[in-house]
């Protein structure tokens, strides 16, 4: 424990004078050209399918509908462990912790695919509280301090995607909402996992009109975006202390579309060699009958975190899914099946863990967020 004294909106209206990019072969539409701030929006609320033929899109839609009706029980209701994030309010929980505490020592609640809201039940991973990163603002208010942002390279900027689905938000929106929050709560910090999303394969998205790689685009935002001043890249160095990180969005890791890390970016402890040891992200849950196996992996990684040196940074993803087990069902449970979030809440409330590390969750509930924060003492 860390000792301390305390413990949708709608999208912006488009100007009629803004131009749109020409349609692409194999796509269902075109994403608008970025404005002067490179704000990019999709035409439809659910995003667009990039790089897929019309036949493939229709087939995917039919399959998703069939699976949602026949294979997966209905969406779980709000509960202490799930889908109740607005009932938690922890805007300043880091402020009372000591400056010399390493971020690795802390128990930090986070969200997996932080802004994946559109595309259907197979792709939605969080409660929808608005586009343009309004959902992020709600998460930060609740106490979430680690975020997972997936991006498509578009006109040498970042748009947010989950697979082929545009999420009605851009990286500039993320920086604005996180920056506004940190300006109002300067004792806090936000840990960022930034990952390229587009492989160009069927079921994914395709980068468009971009000559810069992920590292170069990240640098552009840091140096040119009005809220780039909040970005802190340890550049392969030590895990920052809380005192060094207050008021900043700390890049933990920058990954390519196939998972490889851009080493020399983010914290030096997370590399291609250490990823399997420090990070548990077994994201495939073949069926609802495999939820217990996923929970066992989460629990084992918690045990590893507790037994390791307190200066070692660990990330633990409670998330998982497949076409036969949607993210909501895995996290929250379904008829006859207990969700990972429920297992996690029980484990954390019945065991006095000295730290949890960073826990990245789908659909976290208020009690789960509060319990992770409480582990900091």
UniProtKB/TrEMBL annotation:
Superkingdom of this protein's organism: Bacteria
Protein name: 1-phosphatidylinositol phosphodiesterase
Biological processes, Gene Ontology terms: lipid metabolic process
Organism for this UniProt entry: Saccharopolyspora hirsuta
Enzyme class: lyase
PANTHER family: PTHR13593, SI:DKEY-266F7.9
Domain Phosphatidylinositol-specific phospholipase C X: 99-254
Region (Disordered) residue spans: 1-46
Catalysis: reaction(s): a 1,2-diacyl-sn-glycero-3-phospho-(1D-myo-inositol) = 1D-myo-inositol 1,2-cyclic phosphate + a 1,2-diacyl-sn-glycerol
Enzyme Commission numbers on file: 4.6.1.13
SUPFAM superfamilies noted in UniProt: PLC-like phosphodiesterases (SSF51695)
Alphabetized GO MF terms: phosphatidylinositol diacylglycerol-lyase activity; phosphoric diester hydrolase activity
CDD domains documented for this protein: PI-PLCc_BcPLC_like
